[in-house]
Description:
Blueprint: E1 2-3, H1 15-27, E2 33-34, E3 38-43, E4 49-54, E5 61-62, H2 77-81, E6 92-93, E7 112-113, H3 122-136, E8 150-154, E9 157-163, E10 173-179, E11 184-190, E12 202-208, H4 214-222, E13 258-260, E14 265-266, H5 267-275, H6 281-288, H7 298-311, H8 328-338, H9 343-350, H10 359-371, H11 380-383, H12 386-389, E15 393-394, E16 400-402, H13 413-426, E17 429-432, E18 438-443, H14 448-457, E19 470-475, H15 489-500, E20 509-514, E21 528-532, E22 537-541, E23 553-559, H16 561-578, H17 585-591, H18 595-603, H19 611-624, H20 628-633, H21 636-639, E24 657-660, E25 663-666
Parallel strand pairs: 1-2, 6-7, 19-20, 20-21
Antiparallel strand pairs: 3-4, 4-5, 8-9, 9-12, 10-11, 11-12, 13-14, 15-16, 16-18, 17-18, 21-22, 22-23, 24-25
Helix pairs in contact: 5-6, 5-7, 8-10, 16-19
Amino acid sequence: VVEFAPRLMPLQVDDGGGSALRRHIEELGVVVHTGAASSEILVGEDGRVRGMRFSTGQDDLHSDLVVFSAGVRPRDELARTAGLEVGERGGVVVDSACRTSDPDVFAIGECAVAEGRVWGLVSPGYQMARVVADRILGGDAVFAGADLSTKLKLLGVDVASFGDAFAATPGSESITYDDPVAGVYKKLVVGPPEGRAGHRRVVGGVLVGDASMYQMLVQMARGDMPTPERPEDLVLPERAGDGAAPAMGVAGLGEAAVVCSCNSVAKSEICSAIAGGALDVGAVKACTKAGTGCGGCVPLVTELLKAEMAKAGLAVNDNLCEHFAYSRQELFDLVRVQRLSSFSEVLAGHGAGRGCEICKPAVASMLASLSNGYILDGEQAALQDTNDHFLANLQRDGTYSVVPRVPGGEITPDQLIAIGSIAKEFGLYTKITGGQRIDMFGARVDQLPLIWRQLIDAGMESGHAYGKALRTVKSCVGRTWCRFGVQDSTSLAIELELRYRGLRAPHKLKSAVSGCVRECAEAQSKDFGVIATEKGWNVYVCGNGGARPQHAVLLAADIDTETVIRYLDRFLMFYIRTADRLERTATWFNKLEGGIDYLRRVVLDDALGICDELEADMARHVATYQCEWKATIEDPERVRRFRTFVNSDTPDPNVVFVTERGQPRPAYDHEKPDPVTLAGGLR
């Protein structure tokens, strides 16, 4: 690499960033020459390139191929011929309206000198084009410069610069972190002190080797996000305190740890498969059988795959799927900020192709989280997975489960009688769940509206057992009945369940409220849990079961009920915004840089300045909630979708039950009568 400037990428990075970038590139075996001006390309007798000669006296550089990175130089021949004003270094001079020295002629893009410079990027060209279009239509738009923030990967190295990267703003200062061992360079430029407190705002910066904070820092530099009180924390590494923090997530698993319980596959087997060339989840499944059973370990397998690939220096793809070149978090932010309301809009603006079984349910969940509309209206219906498609959980025999909501486990005698009557009328299997609800299994799809009409008449509503949403808020009886209880856990559990019911998330959510430290509701094993104390409530987050059960961690202690709700509003919405698809809170937390200290700064201290937004998002959800089953049975057109066969009202003959312990259960194949064929065979 031969660079005329004294450092690599001189327009994007400073000397420190250039040095860090140079170290990365030289480690790959690439020789770098900076401050070197070429004077001649050496050509052999056969007419082929043989090398390069420098004007600065260095030895000739032998080479068989020379590639020129020519940069941008304005083509202004036409302007010169027409007698238009051109810049000292070329380019057509334009004013803030993109007019040239002839008021009837406009110039835009890389041929134009606007604000005293040639911009050389496509985005400023688009902005100039908008200005000209507005002016032609009689408007008064102006071009006042453009954001030249950029993030790219150069030979596998993350490089980014944004805002005032070279501290040109009067009174600005730089905060620099340089770790040559890790190959990371970060420079943060903060503006002059503002206000009485002397608060400094991020105005620019340079990142080399680690650009994970780029999007957030760009928002701060643009003024769209407030800068925290201690801006240095944005670039300095987290400290574990006196002792090293325990490894979390896959890093904390021993080599012999069983990742897939169904097939008894250990971490070491999966790592060996990855080292042997299994570089996607499908290949790992084929080699080890991990994830081919119940599928509950697939998120952990995926996390392990990414960690091992990163360790090996291989590129890790975080794209949602082949149709969207964004992670789930990035796509969620695009949908939120641009207020997109349909999959078609999202696909047209940010995707390609027609979508798939990965991105369609993921986008459907984002839209539901942001708009809270009826999920089966219009094109939304085609996006839902099997369970959401019929607002019920599909069972292994083709029937569905019916799970009404029982907030806090509190249920009236009349509601119990209604459940019993429905189970008898439709021949359903009933079971009291670990989350204090009553499940009814074995309902045919055509029976679902009939069952739900009776449940809603009895004052019940959808329990969302079919959705990636809040399932239950489990509770003990608390101080109302228990002699050990110190707070009213049942009332709080009901309040939380009714507040967060229907809240769509990257994965299902479970919660609990215990009335004392005896923890009868098992709040510390939930995605969010609350435990009563003599002074108020302790809030725990990010514990759950799954492939690797994990205890929750303490978020806040001894707080009142109002504060509990405020913190949980923020926590849940922050998780929904930033988690990956199908990622439980525990897995999300294990990947969260900074761990619980960072989460407390975001949720309790509002370090990112987004808590007002998070609370407003939750308030909108609460205000617009509707029971999906109530909305369904009140609309005959919506009810029409619940049919087993398109062209027949005949029940599915494959649904066969036998009796066990006094209740129906699905018949196994050897217990079923001979198959029944419908007339014409069309189902």
